């Protein structure tokens, strides 16, 4: 491949990849508008920490697990329990297609995450949140954000 073709191709891929990321303060605004601050006793900072620790604020992240299920979107919601990916058995408790969790408007992701948190365990349902966010000072997640 010639250099003249490679540079525009790499630039294009970089732009496509960047489009799936959401800035911390933009996410804070969306989560605040969707009444997640205080939802089931969790602060906006808890939710931001969860999104960062699970997907690094990548709305389109998909992670394939060893058991054949996949984790989708900003909150890495698992296909075995919460959504239907048509590849693995799913309880589909959120009653949605997993692809909906990759939508930039975040409505489906937030609705499903609220359902998960409303069940026993709350945010502890996400092991990474439990390991990296629970019980820690998280005020810095909203620092500098105008809500």
Automatic annotation (TrEMBL):
Give the UniProt family note.
Belongs to the glycosyl hydrolase 22 family.
A Pfam family the protein falls into = Lys
Return the SMART domains for the record.
LYZ1 (SM00263)
Signal peptide boundaries: 1-19
GO (cellular component) term, any one: acrosomal vesicle
Organism of origin: Otolemur garnettii (Small-eared galago)
Please name the InterPro entries in this protein's record: Glyco_hydro_22, Glyco_hydro_22_CS, Glyco_hydro_22_lys, Lysozyme-like_dom_sf
Q: Which GO-annotated molecular functions does the record name?
A: lysozyme activity
Record's keyword annotation contains Signal? yes
- The name of this protein is Lysozyme B
Which BP terms in the Gene Ontology apply to this protein?
Answer: fusion of sperm to egg plasma membrane involved in single fertilization
Q: Which UniProt keywords apply?
A: Disulfide bond, Signal
Domain Glycosyl hydrolases family 22 (GH22), by residue range, is: 94-112
Lineage: superkingdom: Eukaryota
